[in-house]
Amino acid sequence: PTSPDDRRRRLRREVRGLGFAGDQRSRWGPGGWAISVGPAILNRGSVNTCVRHNSGSIVDLSFGSPAVARRVQGWRVLVGVETLSDHRYIRFDVSAPPSIRPNSVGPSAPQQDGPRWALGRLDKEALELATLAVSWLPASEGPVRVEQEAEWFGVSMSDVCDAAMPRALRRPPRREVYWWSAELAQLRASCVASCRRCARHRRRRIRSQNHEDQERQLYGLYKEAKRALRVAIHRAKVAARREFLETLDADPWGRPHRLVFNKLRSAAPPLSQSLRPDLLANVVAVLFPATEYTTPPPMAPTGVASSSLSAGDIPEVSPAEMRTAVFRLRGKNTAPGLDGIPGTAWLLALVHLGPRLRSLFFACMVQGAIPARWKTGKLVLLKKEGRPAESPSAYRPIVLLDEIAKLFERILHARLVEHLERVGPNLADNQFGFR
């Protein structure tokens, strides 16, 4: 398995490599071996990848196997980015292989799991104004139509979110590293400015008599700025690490724990989008077997008609019940449902839309109906460790519902618990709650 032929066969699949062409030859392997693998050069253009004081060259090479080279896009050299080195950063994108590519490909393809909003850029004042404007719209006369009213809430809240915050991009921007600070940002800006002044001076066609002296002076200032930035980064890393170690015992589940797990967490697409279509269909068919619809038996006691309850027997949803259900939205950062509306938006919007939503909940109870969109969720598959990937038992399903459906569920849950405790029969002593 470690023979050159075996390694060559593996490299022909999907491999990419980057390196310095002026490095030792032994690191690149024996002569002729790389050519026999059949790699393709990924470099594009004629921009220098290594820039020194008086010269520049293209010595940083990117190779990829033919399977990878066909999926490489946007290979470029980042010219205006400070690297604290003579070598410049190289960036390129690699698209997903056809076996795990989602149904929609391309940068303009719509997302399959519904819209998303950038909650970190929420404008609370704009959301309140948009919610107030929506609340002025009159409701339809007559009995509440639960399907139509639920659709109105979904469309209206989507418009409110669009007015209060931008849509989230498919790839969120990278966060600042934990040791970054405003002082480092200022030093980096100064370093980049010194580098650009030196580069502009070097590109001048009309040169004065002391051109070389000025160039040496500017390059010296650039080296000093680069050295100051490098030293400041080292000190910031040491100080941040010391701070993390000091707070580890006091808060073991705080920032150090989140930092480690964010580092270890993969950035792969959801399993429901990355699995092969045939495997995904098999997993869903096993986890959710298709059975014939059966009518559940009546739950009313013997001798009591199921239609004996009237609208007057069902109490309306009170503001206190709504506040209790909404209270759980505070401080939560869970994934939203298929509509993408975050819980924070509902928390702020219900200040003006609360009475109308309570009327909808009450109508659902009286009519014994739940809107179809509240029963439609987003399927998320979680991989179980130690199970074969081709087996449906290796995946645990979770269905994410919309936040408005969760609010209705909490109100129903509270009423059922109150009825069991007050009227009975109550739950057994060895049963702790239910869903």
TrEMBL record:
Name recorded for this polypeptide: Reverse transcriptase
Organism per entry: Manduca sexta
